[in-house]
C-alpha cells in the first residue's frame, strides 16, 4: 500500500507543478497571484484526496482483507500526501525560480523525491501512531 500512497501524491503534485510552471512561463502566474493559486490548488487537492482516500481505504479493506484501522491509515496518509503535494507543486517552482534554477528542469525530480518521502513518512508515521496506541 505504501507505493500507492507515494505515487498518488507524485501524480497529483506533478500535475500541479506542471500547471504552475506553464503559467509562470506564459506570464499568467506571478508572485502577486500565487497565494490565490495556492488556496485554489490546495482546495482541489483536499477534495481529490478525500475522494481517493475513501476509494483506497475501502479497496484495501476489501481486497487485502485487512482491518478497517489499516484502511483508515492508508486513506489518511493518501489524503495528507495529496494535500502536501499540491502545496509543494505550487511552492517548488517559485522557490527554484528565486534560487535562479529553471523550474522546468529541476521541479519534477524534486517533486517526486518530496512526495515519495512524504508518502512513506506519513504512512509509516500514522501506522506507528495508531497501531501502537491500540495495544
From TrEMBL:
Keywords noted in UniProt: Magnesium, Membrane, Transmembrane, Transmembrane helix, Transport
Name the SUPFAM superfamilies for this protein: MgtE membrane domain-like
Q: What is its main location?
A: membrane
Tell me which GO cellular component terms the UniProt record holds: membrane
Write one Gene Ontology MF term.
monoatomic cation transmembrane transporter activity
Is the Transmembrane helix keyword given for this protein? yes
- InterPro entries referenced in this protein's UniProt entry, alphabetically: SLC41_membr_dom, SLC41_membr_dom_sf
- What is the annotated localization of this protein? Membrane
Membrane protein topology class: Multi-pass membrane protein
What positions does the domain SLC41A/MgtE integral membrane occupy? Answer: 2-126
Keyword Magnesium in annotation: yes
Pfam family for this entry, one: MgtE
- Its transmembrane ranges are 6-25, 45-64, 70-96, 108-132
What PANTHER family does the record point to? MAGNESIUM TRANSPORTER MGTE, SLC41A_MGTE INTEGRAL MEMBRANE DOMAIN-CONTAINING PROTEIN
What family is it from?
Answer: Belongs to the SLC41A transporter family.
**Protein's recorded name:** SLC41A/MgtE integral membrane domain-containing protein
Organism of provenance: marine metagenome
